[in-house]
Amino acid sequence: MFGELLAPRYLHWLFDGFLLTLGLSLLVCVVATGLGALLYLARTAPARWLSTPARLYVLVIRNTPLLVQLFFWYFGVTALLPEALVTWLNTPRSLALGPVSLDWPSFEFIAGFWGLTLYTTAFIAEELRAGIDSVRQEQRAAGLALGLRPAQVWRHVILPQGLRTALGPLLGQYMNAVKNTSLTMAIGLADLSYASRQVETETFKTFQAFGFATLLYVLSIAVIEAVGQLIQHSRHYRRGVA
Amino acid sequence: MDFSVIIDNLGYFTWGAYPDGPLGGAALTLLLSLLSGVSAGVLGLAWGIALVVSRGWLRWVLVGVLGFLRAIPVLMLMFWAYFLLPILFHVDVPALATVVCALSLIGGAYLAHGVAAGIGSLPAGQWAAAKALGLRPGQVLRLVILPQALPIMLPSFLNQWVSLIKDTSLAYVIGVGELSYVATQVSNRVMVHPVQIFLFVALVYFLFCSALQWLAHRLARRVPSRSHR
Question: Can you tell me the distance from the alpha carbon of A235 to that of A104, in angstroms, rounded to the nearest whole number?
């Protein structure tokens, strides 16, 4: 069952898959955090026409499986988009920025990124809401009574406290995002899970293939956890707690 | 939008090939989530109690295993179960059992800390008073602690069940004919209307999940009012 290690070629496949997983998760986390903040603002806006759609969005995204959402974007929406756009999205091209050239991502990557981002956004918005709502109303009133402008109250009173509470759950969502990228293999994106499956079918060294992939996932989660611990023990963070 | 593809395949979406073939579709999704929900509950309860009562290295091993289970993607765990179960038991394990095994391990690992927290939320006096009455540790847990802690934990069990329903869709990757798998089958067969098919499937999942979520909310509201009495 254990046998010898994998040939360098297969390790290379796994490593390529890992890089794709990392890149995709990073991109998803960054974009989803920005969109999540906007969604939070819409969700808590006094205007009904903003808050109701935002609430519905969160409800629908959170109560349907990510896999079905990915299928919907990959198989479903492709059928709706105009032919010319799909061809355009599928055409390989590269963007040259001086010495670095960026290859146009595959259509699977675009669909996976889109689906994962929309999914993660809903969860991040809810974590932000939970964190910021945990700051008591009196804090806001006290800030205003001190003569701060509403923007200053946000900047100096509410956000520092709310984000501190939200940090743990937010990091949890980033971990989920890394794990969720594994689902993109179902739409044919060559991520780490896809690579491990491919190496397994090619070499029949199941234990090594899955073991290596599992190790890399655990490693990335551990790194996020460690970053969280570092932030929570940093002087800047602790100053507010004391 | 033309939804005739849904109407035409409604039976297949609901039951799969049953009764001429194996059960599939939405019924299998519900069955899978029910089985894995119950076993995840049992595992979570056992691990949670073990977290509370164990000390020293045993506790660290348990924390490590639970952390590991939560750190790997459900998909990876399904691959592992698919590959390891037949080796461990020396028999052909049906794919269905593989899915239930993987999902209950994950669900149990997520529940364990909730269970431990629920038990920890009871005042220490409860343990002391029960011991003073001459109950053995097992009896303290069974007769005093759990009857009070379980209602507190119930909403988190239901919430975990909601995520298990969503996670059953991953059974797709090892070829179990639940709702998502059936949907891709139909979509590949008819080659038209993928939007309608996946919208419909999403709606079915949505109804299952939000019904449970609603139940969890109602229970969560009722529980505190009872313990204040």
Answer: 42
